[in-house]
Each structure stands twice: as structure tokens, then as C-alpha cells.
């Protein structure tokens, strides 16, 4: 799912979607004397819904492809004539709302029984962000039985007992080099996804209702219902049952894919962007269809329902440089929360909420 930033030079076997991914992906200038200088990218064809919103407010004008959706929402909702079922709500979340969900994405959403990409190696990890703040290290207990239960991705034996636990850094140093350990800060940087509500089984690509889970937090449910309204069939209300939270660091990508595991594609996926600005690609029903590129900023919301659920989409680039990341407002709000501030300056979080049944 996540890619690297190594350049590939041969386009002969690439689809149109992959060619566009490569066009916007982060590559470094190998000839630069400066360390890791990003190659320049032509962004002139990237759709900018913030600019469209400003133009719409000023004079009511929009580019030919962009339409305003008549849905009695509390702010303009835009669509694309060529992609029925796709909705873009620029600046849908206030700065306070963005900060709230950034905090929850780092502190609450990775908490067990929610699963993360770390479960497969370390089992369930509690209080990861608190451990980062306390500069702790995750250490393997060599006296515990080795191996993980592949069915639960938890620890063998008692689910509450794990081979790995957080310790003070000094106590780890005293154990010597034979002790297997990883710092909490590294684990946070390698956090790639967490799942809320009904748990998604990535190995089988379906929802496993037998896995332990908590319901999606009520405030997130209410927000998702409100945001989903423009894309819902008349007279129906969105029922949030699962969410996948994606975490992006510099150079990370989300390859072209379909979200096709839910039973009813007439219901939208509600996708909230937080943190650094990104480029989002929306293709067609085939990878050979040239995708449209658009900016996603913190606070933007995308809805994909109906025919749009059949369109390939992905994220080939996030911007972490000061000029393009556009995180200044968030940084001001997190000026007294250094660990979150350090994280969000160079990261993007995407919370996408789904009705499964």
C-alpha cells in the first residue's frame, strides 16, 4: 500500500494511473549538492478546490468541469461532471475540529482493541503516544512465550499479557545489546494505520466481526453523519460502522486502489484530511483511465459514493516542506504541545469512515 521514493525510469508497462502517480511522487535530485533536495514538480494541472471556493464566493465562477452540488449543506459542496458520486467539501472542518481529531488519531485511535500495523510484530500496544512523551522504549520480555497468534495478531496466552512492554530508556541500556527493543518515537513514525469500529482484516481484505472492537466514538459518528448527508440517498441517514485511519510521513504514498469491501456502494466513504497538504488522484473504473489530480488540505472532506466507489484513487504525494505543507495554523494551535507539533509538521492523517452493511 505504501510506496518508497526510489525513482523508476521505465514507463513502458505502466498504466495511466501509475504514470500519474510517478509524475507527482517525491523524488530527490541526485545531482544536488544540498542534502535531499526534492525534484521540482509541475503542479499546474492539479485541481485546487480552495481556489475554486474563493472564486465561487467572489463572483460565482467555476471551471467548466467543477459543479456546485445542490444539497442544502451549510457550505458549498463541489462535484466533478465526469465523476458522479464524488463530492469535495473544502475547509469542512474548523481548526478546532482538526486539532481534536489529530489528537484522537494519535492518542485514542491506536489504542487496543483497535488494531494497527504494529499488531503483527508486537501485539497490541497501549498508550503509544504517552510513551513517546515519556521517551520510553518498547522491550521484548525474553521470558514470555515466543510467537503471535496469527488469528488475533495479539500475544499467545493471556490477551492482556504481551511479550513487549514499555520501559524507561535507562533500564534498557542496562540490559545490554542482546535485548530487543524499539523506541516509542520510532513506533509512532512507523505507525501506518489503525482501525476503529468493526475491524478490517488486511490479510483477507474483509471485515472480521469476530474480532474484539469498540464502537466508533459517538462524536465522530455524529460528525460523519453530518458530512455524509450530501452524498446520501434521499431520506436515508449514514450509519458509521468502521473507520480506517491512515498515517503518512514524508515520502509515503497510497497506491491506486478501490474501497470495495462494503456491502452497499450507494453509501459514501467519508474521508477527512488532517495535517500536511497532499495530492489526491481520482481515476476511472480502469487503471488505464487518466486520473485527475487535486490538492487535499487539512480540514478538507471528500465523499465517494455510487459510481465514484468504482473509481481507482490514491495519494502519490504529501508536502512536508514549509513552503507547501500549509500547516502554519495548526502549528499555532499546537504551540504548547511539542510532541504533536513535531509530528504534524511533517505528517498527514486521513480518517475515512464507512457504513459496512
TrEMBL record:
Cofactor: Fe(2+)
Entry's Gene Ontology cellular component terms: cytoplasm
Annotated Gene3D superfamilies: Alpha-ketoglutarate-dependent dioxygenase AlkB-like
Residue ranges annotated for the Fe2OG dioxygenase domain, each copy included: 239-357
The entry's keywords: Dioxygenase, Iron, Metal-binding, Oxidoreductase
Annotated Pfam families: 2OG-FeII_Oxy_2
Note on cofactor: Binds 1 Fe(2+) ion per subunit.
Residues the record lists as binding Fe cation: 257, 259, 313
Record GO biological process: oxidative RNA demethylation
Gene Ontology molecular-function annotations: broad specificity oxidative DNA demethylase activity; ferrous iron binding; oxidative RNA demethylase activity
Protein family according to the UniProt entry: Belongs to the alkB family.
Protein's UniProt name: Fe2OG dioxygenase domain-containing protein
Native organism: Salix brachista
